[in-house]
Amino acid sequence: QKEVEQDPGPLSVPEGAIVSLNCTYSNSAFQYFMWYRQYSRKGPELLMYTYSSGNKEDGRFTAQVDKSSKYISLFIRDSQPSDSATYLCAMKKGTGFQKLVFGTGTRLLVSP
Amino acid sequence: EAQVTQNPRYLITVTGKKLTVTCSQNMNHEYMSWYRQDPGLGLRQIYYSMNVEVTDKGDVPEGYKVSRKEKRNFPLILESPSPNQTSLYFCASSLSGGIQETQYFGPGTRLLVL
User: What is the tens place of the pLDDT at every residue in B69-84?
Assistant: First the structure.
């Protein structure tokens, strides 16, 4: 079983829709959770990070962590065609030089 | 402009022919790492370096070598490439690997080994 599971998609939505992207994980030692966005033919870029359980909001993006269920989510409100990309979740056990474990990524397509 | 650069961006080679993919960052970052990205497997760490002359294995180090002689450069060496090393490779760097620090990724190197 992979440590981090993520549906590869593609997830197709119309412009303006609310998007929900999710990851599940098996290792309860993970404490730090991140979402990266990767445009085609580009490297990933960090979107958001959260520590432990709870919500974090940044503009149209909300990251949610439920450690009891080992489940993390990224919500995108008022989705735009420019949000079309692959979204990767990532997590690590602690601060400092700890290994990042990535999900496989979900491809999101937002149509005008 | 703060960036991580990789060269070459695209490479086609044959089995057994040694190659080096260069990675350079201009942000004075201590932490650098190499990943490979494969469909269905996501990003997997190959090697990482916490500073000059300090390197360690990631999840999939077999068939790869690295060196960190200068802070800005972290080349990835394939001594004898094989077809299963066909992949998309990313170099990344951050100030010290901490969670609150952005890890900057390079643009990727697409490698095909025939």
Answer: 999 999 999 999 999 9
